[in-house]
Write a structure and sequence with these properties.
By secondary structure, the protein is mainly beta. It has one domain (about 20-105): Jelly Rolls (Sandwich), CATH 2.60.120. It contains no helices and eight strands. It has a five-stranded antiparallel beta sheet with strand order 1-2-8-3-6, with no helix packed on it. Strands 5-4-7 form a three-stranded antiparallel beta sheet, with no helix packed on it. Strand 1 and strand 2 form a beta hairpin. The protein starts with about 25 loop residues before the first strand and ends with a strand. Keywords: Dioxygenase, Oxidoreductase.
Length: about 110
Amino acid sequence: MALTHAASGEIVSVRPLGSALRASESVTLVRAPHFEVFRFVLPAGKTTPMHEAAGLITIQCLEGEVALDAHGRRQTLVAGDLVYLDDAEPHAVSALTDASLLVTILLHRV
């Protein structure tokens, strides 16, 4: 079954998942040629490897707590925090508790 993404003008909930967080999976909410938004679910203790996004990126913590490694330092994001990273800025995310993040990328795909 093909995944459906939000259409222009469609309302999408990004409310905290609460008790459903642990059983939830990451999902792409919006996908367009140069724009992508996804909810990234990261269970406590899990870490992404250091990587680079293919464009400008924002990471907003919707719930939980994560450590963000970028710009040569580690910062903690909690619910309500948002961070912006330049194009191709190396970064990694580690879940300190079960967490969900709203990630937005302004892509430079050709």
